[in-house]
Design a protein that fits this description.
- This protein is mainly α.
- It has 3 domains: 37 residues; 56 residues, no CATH class; 77 residues, no CATH class.
- The chain is flat.
- The protein starts with 8 loop residues before the first helix and ends with a helix.
- Keywords: Membrane, Transmembrane, Transmembrane helix.
């Protein structure tokens, strides 16, 4: 005679606990995604961040600070960070302070001191990755580098005195051993493109 299979109380409890665990895991996962949905709406993972609201406000606060200070720390929760402008509409924009922008672009950012200081801080990796249309390798303008003959002709007419289009200006401000370790040697870009040229 065959005995009927019976489920013990322990097995019944284990099955019930397993099903409860799976269902609660799925339920809590859904709740977790619902809670994080506002943060998923932008690349910064910042809940309720909007271009017309939050970003415009932050730009205005920083521009207001930079209008009177060129550097330093700033507390966005301080009373100085109050902006008398509404950021709730879908078409609000940041206010630009043109005197500050002009001072930076036409003043400090074009000075030789600023350029040399920043070139010396540039890592060897980025020296060859800067988006610059070089015209010559050297200051003597012996070795041309422009990508087309027309560009090289424009270089001769417009940029002969501009150090920014000479690769030598960047290389002179690098630690040579570190640079050659990264970019030099047989078959590596600098060796093929410049040293052998």
């Amino acid at each position: 005679m065959i005995k009927p299979y019976s489920i013990s109380d322990k097995m019944h409890f284990g099955t019930l606990a397993g099903i409860t665990y799976i269902l609660s895991s799925v339920f809590l996962s859904v709740i977790y995604v619902v809670i994080l949905t506002p943060s998923f709406a932008n690349d910064l993972w910042w809940a309720n961040y909007t271009l017309s609201g939050t970003q415009a406000l932050l730009i205005d606060i920083i521009n207001q600070f930079l209008n009177t200070n060129t550097n330093g720390s700033f507390d966005v929760l301080s009373p100085e960070a109050i902006m008398f402008k509404e950021y709730t509409s879908t078409q609000s924009y940041a206010t630009l302070y043109f005197p500050y922008i002009h001072t930076e672009i036409l003043g400090r950012l074009t000075s030789i001191e600023y350029a040399v200081k920043n070139l010396r801080q540039l890592s060897p990796y980025w020296t060859m990755r800067m988006n610059v249309q070089y015209c010559w390798v050297d200051f003597n303008q012996t070795f041309e580098m422009a990508h087309t003959e027309l560009r090289q002709a424009r270089c001769m007419v417009n940029y002969r005195q501009n150090a920014a289009v000479h690769l030598e200006a960047v290389l002179r401000n690098q630690q040579w051993n570190t640079f050659v370790t990264l970019w030099g040697g047989n078959g590596i870009r600098f060796n093929i493109a410049v040293e052998r040229g």
